[in-house]
Amino acid sequence: MKKIYYFLVMLFLLFSCRETKQGDLLEIPIDIGQNISLHISEILDEMIVIEPELTDKSLVNPDRIKRIFLFGDYLIIAEREKIHVFDKEGKFVRSIGSRGQGPGEHTGIKSVALDEKNGCLYVISSSKIICYDLEGKCVKESTIEDGWSLTDMNFIADELLFVAEQYGRKDDKGNFKRTALYHMNRDLQITDSCFIRDVYFERTGLYNHPFEDFILYRDSTVYLYCSDIYFDQQNPAETVLRDTLNRLENNRLIPELKLKIKNDGIDGGGSKFIQLFSIYRSDRFVFAVYGISTNSLFYRFCYDVITGEGYNMQDGYTDDVNHIEKRVSIRPLTTNTEWFYYWYTHIKPTDKEEPNPTIYIGKLKK
Fold first, then answer.
1. At 40, is the secondary structure helix, strand, or coil?
2. How far apart are CA 19 and CA 90, in angstroms?
3. Which of these, 342, 276, 11, lies nearest to 162 by C-alpha position?
4. DSSP designation for 6
5. What are the strands of the beta sheet with 65-71, ordered from one edge?
6. Is 63 helix (H, G, I), strand (E, B) or coil?
């Protein structure tokens, strides 16, 4: 097994990537007081509906879903503790991976990436990266040094990209958190790095992210958004809100677009602030998820680049295609942001036990 930490230290010295401004950014306004639910039919081109089979070995917990992939004849559902493989008719095929601390075992799943070319899944656990084939065999693994947290990853253009964070660091300027993007080959060896930022703080709150759609892929372009808010409780004017989506070009971060929120989402007293959890785009639409500190709601936002219309939703989208009663929350397919997915558990009066959630995978309009 190869140690990742040695390469991290060496590659941080390169600082090979900086945020670079080029020309005027597309600024998209968000009215946080608006609550207009967008109908799924207004963004949808086509949809695939799959009802995963429920067996003793294939129970899906919708509250623990991390990633969903549609690959060839397979539907892959990755949860925090297990990965299930179904065929496109919903028939259960197998589970991949198991909990433990031995070779090929994990102690919990933080993120999953799919290598479509070789049909392999890469899994971030708490202490290592594991590569499985779709038969469930552990192909290789590499350990992660203590002190580093790998938050998200994606397999794009024959390499694994992952975001790494390190907390509790200190230098002569004070305490800071470091964030970087790393490139890794199929042998789990780091080949390049891209420094993102250091965040210095004193008497502050650092707020983390429940959504991990940081590294996404569309039409040969890699997009990166790292959720992060630096909130100085003593000096609200020093609060920083990350509001820009970047694309990765020649290992440099190029600003793509900016979300414009009134007062940057922060009031003068520092008691209220907004945190953006994710920003991503398709060819036609820009999507975002954010929260407000004064309540526990997640807000969804969709902007139509063609019409210039923005939709701010407190509870999600209205499914007028499948006629789901509750509003739904969509997430992008990491392999192609022209597709999205969501799920819903339909319980019939005759059901003796709760079925697996139905998976809806939609292609966006151009």
1. helix
2. 43
3. 11
4. H
5. 65-71, 74-79, 83-87, 92-96
6. helix
CA distances from 46 to 42, 339, 340, 341, 361 (A): 11, 10, 11, 12, 9
> Amino acid identity, residue 260?
K
Q: Count CB neighbours of 357 within 10 A.
A: 19
**Distance separating alpha carbons of residues 330 and 300, to the nearest angstrom:** 9
Dihedral sign computed on CA atoms, order 68, 334, 81, 228: negative
CA angle (22, 185, 133) in 5-degree steps: 125
Element containing residue 132 per DSSP (H, E):
strand 128-133
The amino acid sitting at 259 is L
171 burial (CB, 10 Å; 0-12 / 13-18 / 19+) is exposed
DSSP letters spanning 288-347: EEEEETTS-PEEEEEEETTT--EEEESS-BB-TTTT-SS-B--EE-TT-TTEEEEEE---
pLDDT along the chain (366 residues), means of 10: 46 42 76 91 98 95 94 95 96 92 87 94 90 94 81 92 84 83 92 87 56 86 80 54 87 92 55 81 95 82 96 94 95 95 93 92 97
- B/e letters for 336-349, b = 16+ CB within 10 Å, e = fewer, are bbbbbbbbeeeeee
Domains of the chain: 4-364 (2.130.10)
Contact of 201 with 232, CB cutoff 8 Å: yes
Please, are residues 170 and 176 in contact by the beta-carbon 8 Å criterion?
Answer: yes
Label residue 283 left, alpha or beta by phi (over 0 means left) and psi (-120 to 50 means alpha): alpha
Residue type, 57: K
CB atoms within 10 A of CB 274: 22
Q: Taking CA 203 as the corner, what is the angle to CA 197 and CA 206, rounded to the nearest 5 degrees? A: 45
